[in-house]
Amino acid sequence: MMSNTIRIAPSLLSADFARLGEEVRAVIAAGADRSHFDVMGNRCVPNLTVGPLVCQASKPHSSVPIDVHLMVKPVDALIPMFAQAGAGIISFHPEASEHVDRSIQLIKSLGVKAGLVLNPATPLHVLDHVIEQLDLVLLMSVNPGFGGQSFIESTLPKLEKARRLVDTAMKNTGREIWLEVDGGVKRDNARRVAEAGADTMVAGSAVITGARNTAAYAEAIAGIRDEALAGQQRLALETA
Ligand code: DX5
Ligand code: ZN
């Protein structure tokens, strides 16, 4: 049941925010399947980034869905603002909502795809009663707050279990549910990340770095995608 494709979502946290529109256009021209928009509120993560206004400013430059990752608490008041600002997907952390089911319903009522984000220490059982309502399960492979951190290896066995949960939920609902990994994804670990079951990968500092131009971003995205596709094919063979 696993989707047989790989989606790459460059995290704009690594972008030059003085040229955000240009950077969004460049990563999309370089092959990004969506832009990953990290919203941090300095309460549930030790950082403060951008809000709906900046998401709205990026929208005209974004011909692919904006994948909004809310690291704020509480989330419910901000969900409609990001829907209004053009988010295609809104993901939130269960620890940031008093009523996770209600927050998921709120996102979907606004015509936006809904995702739940699990920190490295958040157990998979938070998915138990809601996974079949989700469009996206996002596993953090770093502790949220910053780009450029190292991939947490214990994500891989957790990802294998999440893959099985997502496949069962897709079979029960007949709907596609993406399984995304976020944090420390690089060309040299993308194959293992895909082999463990991720079909969508956030990559910030592995893509938006060095020579900040479309050609450099394209080379980075292609390298990650090639590795990930090889890992996904290996997984398909193992599970055939
Ligand atoms: C961290 C963010 C991630 C981060 C990814 O809290 O949610 O999306 O920006 O950046 P890299 O790929 O550099 O770890
Ligand atoms: Zn993120």
Short structural summary:
This protein has 240 residues and is of the alpha/beta class. It has seven helices and eight strands. The chain is 35% helix and 17% strand.
Description:
The protein has about 240 residues and is of the alpha/beta class. About 35% of the residues lie in helices and about 15% in strands. The protein is built from seven helices and eight strands. It has an eight-stranded parallel sheet with strand order 1-8-7-6-5-4-3-2. Strand 7, helix 6 and strand 8 form a beta-alpha-beta unit. The termini are close together. The mean pLDDT is about 95. The structure holds D-xylitol-5-phosphate (DX5) and zinc ion.
What is the fold's blueprint, element by element?
Elements: E1 7-10, H1 20-29, E2 35-40, H2 52-58, E3 66-71, H3 78-84, E4 89-92, H4 100-109, E5 113-118, E6 136-140, H5 155-173, E7 178-182, H6 190-195, E8 200-203, H7 214-239
Parallel strand pairs: 1-8, 2-3, 3-4, 4-5, 5-6, 6-7, 7-8
Zinc ion is lined by residues 11, 36, 38, 69, 182, 202.
Keywords:
240 residues, alpha/beta, eight-stranded parallel beta sheet, 8 strands, 35% helix, binds D-xylitol-5-phosphate, binds zinc ion
**Helix-and-strand structural type:** alpha/beta
N-to-C series of helices and strands: EHEHEHEHEEHEHEH
Write down the overall geometry.
Answer: globular
Largest sheet: 8 strands, parallel
Uncertain regions spanning at least 5 consecutive residues:
none
Distance between the amino and carboxyl termini: 10 Å
Instruction: Please bin the fraction of helical residues.
Output: 25-40%
* Oligomeric assembly: single chain
Average pLDDT, all residues:
96
Radius of gyration: 16 Å
Distinct small molecules bound, one entry per kind? D-xylitol-5-phosphate, zinc ion
Strand percentage lies at: 15-25%
Major sheet strand order: 1-8-7-6-5-4-3-2
Number of helices: 7
